[in-house]
Design goal:
By secondary structure, the chain is of the alpha/beta class. The chain has 18 helices and twelve strands. It starts with a helix and ends with a helix.
Length: 413
């Protein structure tokens, strides 16, 4: 057994241990076999079970297949189930030709030997924004290309801020944001809501403040990291944020903001449709860094990857399929459907031209950062777990920010 096989079997064992039961949607024959007996059929696995055979997404995949002269067999899985299926399929030399996965998963699959590099498959990634492409890089190699990105920013209620005498243009850093929250509270309204739940969602929401302080995930207990945890802790202590944030998911946090009582909510592009239905005027502000400017927020969104195939002759057609899916024209249509910001400046400019309200989101995505960037790869999940535990400990008052982060750093080591 070679080292790649050993890595793959280890990854399969770990993944299966946390596997969740899920039902796949397929535009093919309903099976989860990656290969078809028909050599003219290419398989695509994606994490979009919400899109059925009649959807624009499925029609796009089939159109790219027609353009490449092949048939497409598409199967959709729940995001977590997709990772498990991809690892098991690779073990059986039965991988899909095209695999679309959540960006933090790329490093896991790459380390397990499941994916080809762009040097191997000759994918052109030159137009992708470097900060977004970094989420698919590990060990100096690139595995796939982003299909779109979302991230976090601050939604704000214009009516609440107006009543409190807050000019949104004055909010440029942590100090001015905290001053705005103080005014809002004095005016009898509520300040800011976010998700600090003890899961990856909590880390996802905390990262803009952590990175915005200048902290690094390799040094959780730095003075900058302590400042970020102290910011949230002080907001709770002063009543600028509710105690409910400790258990809030991003959905329940949004529901609090949608009540109309809060000045700010940290949330993502996926809430844009709900924001339009909220019944009050809102705006969007990139999350400020400690000393000003935009903080790096973590990127969400998927990568289009090419798994290793026993039959290397399939790669040429696979490359045509991926190039079609990630072309400027198709990225615009896809990212509109998925409420994503495009991964290239060319398409981002088109999105803003069509909808000016996307401008702050494009700015946020341009400042964003992959969770597995800085070559963290598969180290990230362990670091993230300790980070959310530290935030929970500090917000609950069971530990000081310093002690919570010190314990987190010790656990990571």
């Amino acid at each position: 057994m070679n080292s790649s096989s050993r890595r793959l079997l280890a990854a399969v064992s770990l993944s299966t241990a946390v596997a969740v039961a899920g039902t796949a949607c397929s535009s093919g024959d309903g099976t989860t076999s990656a290969k078809s007996a028909d050599g003219g059929t290419y398989t695509i696995w994606d994490p979009y079970p919400q899109f059925d055979r009649s959807s624009a997404w499925t029609k796009l995949l089939e159109g790219c297949g027609s353009e490449a002269g092949v048939k497409i067999k598409r199967t959709a899985f729940d995001t977590s189930d997709l990772t498990n299926k991809a690892l098991l399929a690779a073990q059986q030399d039965n991988s899909a030709d095209v695999l679309i996965v959540d960006n933090p998963v790329v490093s896991t699959l790459a380390e397990a030997g499941v994916l080809t590099t762009t040097d191997d498959n000759k994918l052109d990634t030159s137009k992708a924004d470097p900060n977004l492409l970094a989420a698919g890089q590990s060990g100096g190699k690139t595995y796939g290309t982003p299909i779109g990105a979302n991230t976090l920013a601050l939604y704000y209620n214009k009516d609440v801020l107006k009543a409190a005498g807050v000019d949104i243009a004055s909010v440029k850093d942590w100090e001015s944001l905290t001053a705005a929250l103080e005014k809002v509270k004095k005016a009898g309204k509520k300040g800011i809501t976010f998700s600090a739940i003890g899961t990856e969602e909590g880390s996802f929401q905390f990262l803009p403040w952590f990175w915005g302080s200048g902290a690094k995930l390799t040094e959780l207990d730095s003075a900058q990291g302590v400042a970020a945890v102290s910011l949230w802790t002080d907001w709770l202590r002063k009543g600028y944020a509710p105690n409910s944030v400790i258990n809030n998911t991003q959905t329940t946090s949004w529901q609090e903001f949608a009540s109309g009582d809060y000045a700010f909510a940290e949330n993502g592009t996926w809430q844009l449709a709900n924001a339009e239905k909220a019944g009050f005027e809102y705006g969007v502000l990139p999350i400020p860094a400690s000393g000003g400017g935009n903080a790096a927020a973590p990127t969400g969104g998927e990568f289009v990857t090419v798994p290793v195939q026993g039959d290397t002759g399939r790669y040429a057609t696979t490359r045509k399929l991926v190039s079609c899916l990630t072309s400027a024209e198709n990225l615009y249509d896809t990212d509109t459907t998925l409420s994503y910001v495009a991964p290239t400046s060319e398409v981002q400019d088109k999105q803003i031209a069509e909808n000016a309200e996307l401008k702050p989101w494009v700015e946020a995505v341009k400042a964003a950062k992959g969770r597995t960037s800085d070559d963290l790869g598969t180290k990230y999940p362990k670091i993230s777990e300790q980070l959310w535990k530290a935030v929970q400990s500090a917000l609950s008052g069971s530990k000081s920010p310093e002690d919570a982060l010190s314990a987190a750093q010790d656990a990571v080591k």
